């Protein structure tokens, strides 16, 4: 009850705050959620999980990642999973691609939207994809060009926008610099990731101010809930004009390179919090519970969302 009461106390502060009437939730469970889970989920179960999520009312579900099975074993069946899921009307199914090889594999199975990752931390970039920020952006530029030639939409991510497990605090101006590069490449939207969950409302406010030159309707936020601060951070972002939030059903997963477990904020917690404030998400909570129960049962883990 203490977590519930603490969250409700935080939400009360925003009852009379100017917030958007609607927020788009990008469901990250099948990709960012599962990639760091030790239990390997079978392909047919991933397909069922994604199909259950598709029934919930999400506009976007990040489906899988076309990465080397050597580095992320959980995503080794990307082509099979994407090919077999039911594609619901008005739902996008973006996939993560790190390089041209990944893009070529994605194109073979008819992917319509991809995501590319940048980082605001040099050390994290080296640990994550074995190259500098500058080199990673050059690599992604080639991916983006080929994707555009094939009529593919591109979403961008910036990792470690609040802090890095190797460098510590990150300069918000560095985040702005990487964000600008991703937009210049042709990303239609850039998601700002607090990869290890060290963000605070004050840090979030500072980041929003550093990004003031951008159209906030083209930005999204991706908070991890390591220290139970994801919801307050999200609300600060919404207060500044953000209208898109990434989250993961049941609080699944996190980044395998983050140095310690740092799970995504639970989709259920986000939806409950927004509903409490009168913000529409379009998500059916009963159908979401069905998807959550299914995946948590497979993983033998507890749903860490906050319900009230």
From TrEMBL:
Pfam families: HMGL-like. Keywords: Lyase, Metal-binding. One of its GO terms (molecular function) is hydroxymethylglutaryl-CoA lyase activity. It is an enzyme of class 4 (lyase). Pathway: Metabolic intermediate metabolism; (S)-3-hydroxy-3-methylglutaryl-CoA degradation; acetoacetate from (S)-3-hydroxy-3-methylglutaryl-CoA: step 1/1. InterPro entries: HMGL, PYR_CT. Residues 23-289 form the Pyruvate carboxyltransferase domain. It catalyses: (3S)-3-hydroxy-3-methylglutaryl-CoA = acetoacetate + acetyl-CoA. NCBIfam families: PRK05692.1 (NF004283). PANTHER family: HYDROXYMETHYLGLUTARYL-COA LYASE. This is hydroxymethylglutaryl-CoA lyase. It comes from Paramecium pentaurelia.
């Amino acid at each position: 009850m203490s977590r519930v009461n603490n969250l409700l106390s935080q939400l009360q502060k925003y009852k009379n705050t100017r917030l958007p009437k609607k927020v788009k939730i990008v469901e990250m469970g099948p990709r960012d959620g599962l990639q760091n889970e030790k239990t390997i989920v079978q392909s047919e179960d991933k397909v069922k999980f994604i199909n259950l999520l598709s029934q919930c009312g999400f506009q976007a579900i990040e489906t899988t990642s076309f990465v080397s099975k050597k580095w992320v074993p959980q995503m080794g069946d990307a082509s099979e999973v994407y090919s077999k899921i039911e594609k619901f009307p008005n739902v996008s199914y973006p996939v993560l691609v790190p390089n041209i090889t990944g893009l070529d594999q994605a194109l073979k199975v008819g992917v319509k939207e991809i995501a590319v990752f940048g980082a605001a931390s040099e050390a994290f970039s080296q640990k994550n994809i074995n190259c500098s920020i500058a080199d990673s952006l050059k690599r992604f530029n080639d991916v983006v060009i080929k994707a555009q030639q094939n009529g593919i939409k591109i979403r961008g991510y910036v990792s470690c926008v609040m802090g890095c497990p190797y460098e510590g605090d990150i300069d918000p101006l560095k985040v702005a610099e990487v964000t600008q590069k991703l937009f210049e490449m042709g990303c239609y939207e850039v998601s700002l990731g607090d990869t290890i969950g060290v963000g605070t409302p004050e840090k979030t406010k500072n980041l929003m101010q550093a990004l003031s030159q951008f159209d906030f309707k083209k930005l999204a936020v991706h908070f991890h809930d390591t220290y139970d601060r994801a919801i307050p951070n999200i609300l600060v972002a919404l207060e500044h004009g953000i209208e898109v939030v990434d989250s993961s059903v049941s609080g699944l997963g996190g980044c395998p390179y983050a140095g310690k477990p740092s799970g995504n904020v639970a989709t259920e917690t986000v939806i409950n919090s927004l509903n409490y404030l009168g913000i529409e998400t379009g998500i059916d909570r009963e159908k979401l519970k069905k998807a959550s129960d299914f995946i948590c049962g497979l993983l033998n883990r507890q749903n860490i969302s906050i319900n009230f």
